[in-house]
Structures are given as structure tokens and as C-alpha cells.
Amino acid sequence: MPTHIGLDIGSESIKLVAVEKTGDKYVLVAMSHGPTPVGALKSKNEIEEQSLIAAVKAVVDSAKAKTKDVVCALHESDVFTRVVQMPSLSDRELSSAVRWEAEQVIPLPIDEVIYQHQVIRRPEKDVPGAKMDVFLIAAPKLLVDRYQRILLGAGLHPKALETEMVALARSLVGNNPYSPTTLILDFGAEATDMSVVHGGFIAFTRSISSGGAALSRAIAAELGFEMAQAESYKRTYGLMANQMEGKINHAMQPVIAIVLEEVKRVLAYYAEHNPKDPVRRITLAGGSARLPGFVVEIATALGIEVQMADPFFNISHRPTQELADEGPRFAVAAGLALKEDV
Ligand SMILES: Nc1ncnc2c1ncn2[C@@H]1O[C@H](COP(=O)(O)OP(=O)(O)OP(=O)(O)O)[C@@H](O)[C@H]1O
Ligand SMILES: [Mg+2]
Fold first, then answer.
1. What CA–CA distance (Å, rounded) separates 157 from 142?
2. In the predicted model, is pLDDT for residue 245 greater than 60?
3. Distances 102 to 93, 97, 160, 290 between C-alpha atoms, Å
């Protein structure tokens, strides 16, 4: 497999991972990151787009990867994903049936979106009326065009665009049939995204706009700190109730409660529709997963196994503390880099 770059343009930072496939092994060949200019990702302004292009270019240059081929992720909240049930059809019949289905479920005019589908489960043969599960994904054309402009502007060759959750499902669960049904929680800076992954496929996704930045803002507001100071206290003391008289923990609780509440809802929704197969594990990705005390907090609140994302598990690399620590933050980029057939 020729090397390609996995690029995750987050609202706070840009993360890059490149892997090379040798035989059936993946080897880590490059990794780098850099700041996203504040507000540039969501802005429609030309100057901010240029500053984002420059920031992407800086991250790519510092990785010194040999290739310009790139797979990039669209933000989960910008895309529409849904598993739909459809009659059992051949691949040819399906492509036209999907357009009709897409028109029904996608909340935007069909000519303004780019959509793709993937069959995730076909019914047992000869079961009359049995349905198949189809994963449908759609993004506004204008958004896709913007990503293309940014990537081309940075001198890259865009090979594919995916969603963050598709990338995370690949790097954290893969097609391992022994993985239990897993909830992946990407606790980022501006967003927290969740998905339930079963048998390597995404069954359900959900996105909320509370993340690590909201934690820092809450600390700054409650304790009268500057943002940089709040950020540093957050990273040092986190949710540890025995530090700073529990003040940092206390300030962050409203935001933590929003995140936990949403996770509970997702778990309950999935259990209701799949009573024989509840979620058995939560895997934490995103920079905010490293919030001290978060793993214990979430495991205690939900009574479920919680683990930190290790997207480098199946990628040969020289083990370092940095790589172990940065795994959750680079999990999207690693999943993009592991995409085959691009
Ligand atoms: N050690 C730490 N403890 C707590 N939070 C941390 C730590 N390290 C990083 N963070 C937080 O992680 C967040 C950045 O994570 P990440 O890089 O996953 O975000 P992003 O991908 O840029 O954002 P988004 O996915 O929301 O667009 C920031 O809010 C930062 O404060
Ligand atoms: Mg992110």
C-alpha cells in the first residue's frame, strides 16, 4: 500500500499520522501536529481560509512525509449519518434505491449533498420480507468543496474524505470480531462525539457541542482565572476532588454532567433497540480524554469498562511515553491513515 497521510483538522489542533503497509503490517512513518487558527475552521471568510491552509501546510511540512496523498475527516456534527433498513436488494438495485431513501431521510435537498452508502448487514437467505442494514452518510457539497480547497491549497492530493467516527471505528475497533460492542467517545475541544460500534460497523452516532474548551471556560468563569491559567489547572488537577479543595472539580461538574447524561442516553437508546447486545465497553478518544480523573468518573457513573484509546495498537512503532499519552488525541488521524484502497 502506498503511504498516505491521515489528517484530522480539529477546532483546536491539526493532527497528522502517516503509516506504510509492508506485507500485512502497518508501520508508523510520520506524526505531527500544530494549532488550528482560532475560529478558522467554521469561518467562511477568505482570509481565515488562507490562515487555515498555512496551518495545515506547516503540520504537513513538519511531518516530512514522502507523500502528498491525504485522507481527511469531516466533523461529525457537519455530516449526516444514519443506519437505514432497506429491502434485501442486489448491489445494482441498491444504488438507485439508496437515492430515494437518501431523499427521505437527509434533511437537505439531495442535489446539495454528496452521499455514500455501505451495506453493513444482509439478512439470512430465504427469509421472506427480511431487511438489510445500510449505512448512509451525507455531507453538504459546499463543505466538501471547502475541504478540497483547503487541502489543495496546502499542496496536498485529497484521496478521500471520511467522518471522524468512521476513522475512529477503524483505528479503535477495526474488524476485530472479538471486540465487544463499544461506545467510542471522542472528547475534543469544541465537540464531544459518540458512536456505538458493533462488529466493526457504526450502529449509531451522536454529537454534542460541549468539549474541553467548555471545561476551561467553566473554570475561568467560576474561579476568575485567565483562560491559559484555567487550561493549565484543568490539565494538572482535572477532576481530582482532593486537589485545590475540590474547586476545579466543582467548576467543571456542570459540563461533565452534560457529557455523562448524553452517554447515558446513547447507552439506553442502544440497549432498548438491542436488548441482547448492550454496550460493554467505552473507549475514550480526543485530547480531553486525558483529563485527570475522567476515566474513574465515567466508569463510576456508568458502571461499565472504560479504556483509553490506543490507535497505535496495530501499527508498528518505537514505543515512547509521548505516543502512549497522545494516542487518544491522534486516534482520528490514525484511523484515516489506516484507510485502504485510496
Ligand atoms: N492533559 C489534558 N487534560 C485535560 N484536557 C486536555 C489535556 N490535553 C489536552 N486537553 C484538551 O483536549 C482538547 C483538544 O483535544 P483535541 O485535539 O482532540 O481537540 P480537537 O480535535 O482540536 O477539537 P474538536 O474535535 O472538538 O474539533 C482541548 O480542550 C484541551 O484542553
Ligand atoms: Mg477532534
1. 19
2. yes
3. 14, 9, 21, 38
* 190 CA: nearest ligand 1 atom: 26
Q: How far is CA 297 from the centre of its chain?
A: 22
Atom of ligand 1 nearest to the CA of 231: 31
Q: Could you tell me the domains of the chain? A: 80-140 (3.30.1490.300), 176-308 (3.30.420.40)
Q: For cell 497528522, name the residue.
A: 16
Beta-strand relationship, 25-35 and 315-316 = parallel
**Dihedral angle of Cα 312, 330, 178, 278, to the nearest 10 degrees:** 160
- 134: exposed, middle or buried (C-beta count within 10 Å: 0-12, 13-18, 19+)? buried
Atom of ligand 1 nearest to the CA of 36: 22
Residues in contact with ligand 1 (CB, 6 Å cut-off): 10-13, 188-191, 211-213, 216, 231, 234-235, 286-288, 290-291, 329
Q: Can you tell me whether residue 36 is helix, strand or coil?
A: coil
Euclidean distance between CA atoms 278 and 267, whole angstroms:
8
- Tens of pLDDT, residue by residue over 3-14, are 899 999 999 999
Q: How far apart are CA 284 and CA 260, in angstroms?
A: 13
Q: What phi, psi does 68 have (nearest 5°)?
A: -110, -5
Q: Which residues, at least 6 apart from 97, have a Cβ–Cβ distance to it below 8 Å? A: 86, 87, 89
At 151-202, the pLDDT tens digits run 999 999 999 999 999 999 999 998 676 789 999 999 999 999 999 999 889 9
Digit-coded pLDDT (tens) for 67-83: 999 999 999 999 999 99
For 57, residues 6+ apart whose C-beta sits below 8 A from its C-beta are 154, 155
